[in-house]
Amino acid sequence: MREVDLTDPPPSSEAATFAACLATILELDLADVPERVAGEDVAGWRTSRWLGGLGVGLVPVADAASFSWAGPWIGWVRPAGGGERRAVVMFGVPAGVAWDPSGVADADDLRLDGGFVVAALDIALARPARPRAPVSAGTVEAIFVAPEAGAEAGAVEVVRALPGRGLAGDRHVAGTGTFPSGLPGSALTLIEAEVCESFAPTLAAGEHRRNVVTRGIDLNALVGHEFVIGAVRCRGMRLCEPCTVVERYASRPVLRALVHRGGLRADILEEGELRVGDPVRAA
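-> structure tokens emitted (283 positions)
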């Protein structure tokens, strides 16, 4: 996702904000999006046929307030008292505003009023290739466990990794976290120290809520690959994308900055001990 360069003043109409959000999700220049002709719907035939040429389309979201999608989508926001709607880019599970071209999302009286997912017409053709596993090794810089959702994340030097469950003493093992335990990718979460340090002040454990902080390895490149932390074998399942839960813990705007940088969700395949200072390398 790459925000488009906005005009000055920024777009303020339904059509202009929709075009800006669509260009941002597709990582295109704003000038590439066809202009709406008076009387046409912003998501009408002109837009849908242009998108079809890119191999994508728009899927309407009826109940945007309860909709969650682990990627960007377009949400309509409207003042509670009425008025013209504006488009914003939503992201995360649960979803929050990741980008707002018109600056209206800060208002207290806005409500979500529908939206669209930009989806591939044939997902088999659109699936991205798996990244190559990283060649260089990293290290474990810190380990954190929290007994339940919202509880303080405590730093430990060594912890038992339990296959299919998580780290001993952590909410993912006990089933007391925000999200369900025991599902693929729910046992272990990791984040790069370099990402945490890109924030000012540095993103703390109580904000990112990940189990393991690493340094020197590309965690995104471990998706779909087995890797080893010390002597413990794991498998990268998917990116650990941000959502409104992380932003609530952080008490500052972090959702947009963590998109595709929020770390890794992994399964633990073998029992063993994780230690601060352990090497992290692709298997």
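The chain has a mean pLDDT of 93.
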